[in-house]
Amino acid sequence: MIRIILIGCNGRMGQAMTARIKEEDNMDIVAGMDMDQDAVNGYPVHGNFYAITETADVVVDFSHMSLTSALLEFCLEKKLPLVLCTTGIAGELEDKVIEAAKEIPLFRSFNMSLGISLLQALVRQAARVLGNTYDIEIIEKHHNKKVDAPSGTAIMIAQAAASALTFEPQHTYDRTKEHKQRERHEIGVHSIRGGTIVGEHEAMFIGPYEVLTISHSAESRDLFANGAIKAIEFLLDDPQPGLYNMDDLVQSLS
Prior knowledge:
The chain is of the alpha/beta class. It has two domains: about 1-110 and about 220-254, 3-Layer(aba) Sandwich (Rossmann fold), CATH 3.40.50; about 115-220, 2-Layer Sandwich (Dihydrodipicolinate Reductase, domain 2), CATH 3.30.360. The protein is built from seven helices and twelve strands. α4 packs parallel to α5 (about 150-165).
């Protein structure tokens, strides 16, 4: 039985993860952590890391980047593998993630969808073929409760495109500040927020007289919970320190 500590257990993704784990015969959530402790989940929910005393095999995080530093310290102290699904991690915080992965197995992805991982591979291929002559624009759409913009997934897609280009692109998030013609070396990233959209992403390659669009639409949060379950299994199959991502998971399944 794989014992899980779930951080952010009472958020939208935390609740989706809780429901999915209940369907798994070989997994069990032994404890959760969340600022909101009102939900009844069938396992103890703590308000901080110091209160967690349950023994576990892995930690899964669907919380907020404001908790990431403390989360890394907790996992390092307990020598626990970590599946890190929080978005918005960058700069010094990203450096801490990289350092932690030298001591514990750490799986990190802004998006736990296998489909998004394949989308990134297609975007890299399209950028290699078209990127020097076609304009690249990325559009992401999410529900009206989402705080960060652009989404971590949109950033991942932009990075995937950039990695295949022969030049260093400029990522443009706001064209209202300067009224000027589009630069040749731009990758435009645009955010839409509304209603209950789970998550939609489009990568557009716009050239002379044609537009190639590569898109992905998430219809349920169960999609990301399924990806997190596969990440847990991947991480614990050979739990060696290192920083892993969805590309590693996809390769292990192919």
